[in-house]
Inverse folding.
């Protein structure tokens, strides 16, 4: 899944593998994914491989992107258990949406202080066409095919 903002900003999330491929009984660990996170912002570009999504969260994220694409006003934020990446809707027009991606903890760029005074999270605003969210939702769903849900979603 990749989103390109009008100003050159980008956010890409691509599931790479299960974090614990042999775990089957614990729903959290069995569904934890290592994700390639790529960000381009006015501050710089970076990528990290991080266990920031579970399969069930990635499925919900794809559904959330599709809901935002059709203007669902209830789709205000895509909260994830690991708070490394938070997506929310800043504004929504007939053809465009401004998504705000906040990158925290281990997913932050290496040039930001990681803890203590001065530690900061990075926020990237992505002004994208609503149609691009449909593509991103479909792409994420496609990228999840090799990673079936291996235990029930404990958040349902």
């Amino acid at each position: 899944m990749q989103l390109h903002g009008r100003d050159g900003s980008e956010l890409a999330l691509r599931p790479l593998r299960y974090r614990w491929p042999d775990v089957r009984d614990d729903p959290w660990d069995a569904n934890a994914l290592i994700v390639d996170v790529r960000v381009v912002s006015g501050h710089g570009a970076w990528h990290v491989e991080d266990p920031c999504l579970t399969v069930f969260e990635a499925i919900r994220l794809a559904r959330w992107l599709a809901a935002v694409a059709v203007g669902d006003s209830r789709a205000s934020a895509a909260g994830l258990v690991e708070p490394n990446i938070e997506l929310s809707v800043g504004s929504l027009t007939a053809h465009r949406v401004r998504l705000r991606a906040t990158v925290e903890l281990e997913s932050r760029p290496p040039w930001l202080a990681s803890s203590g005074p001065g530690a900061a999270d990075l926020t990237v605003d992505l002004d994208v066409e609503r149609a691009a969210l449909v593509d991103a939702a479909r792409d994420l769903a496609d990228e999840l095919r090799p990673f079936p849900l291996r235990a029930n979603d404990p958040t349902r």
Summary: Helices lie at 27-30, 55-69, 130-143. The two ends are 24 Å apart (CA to CA). The chain has a mean pLDDT of 86. The first strand starts at residue 2 and ends at 4.
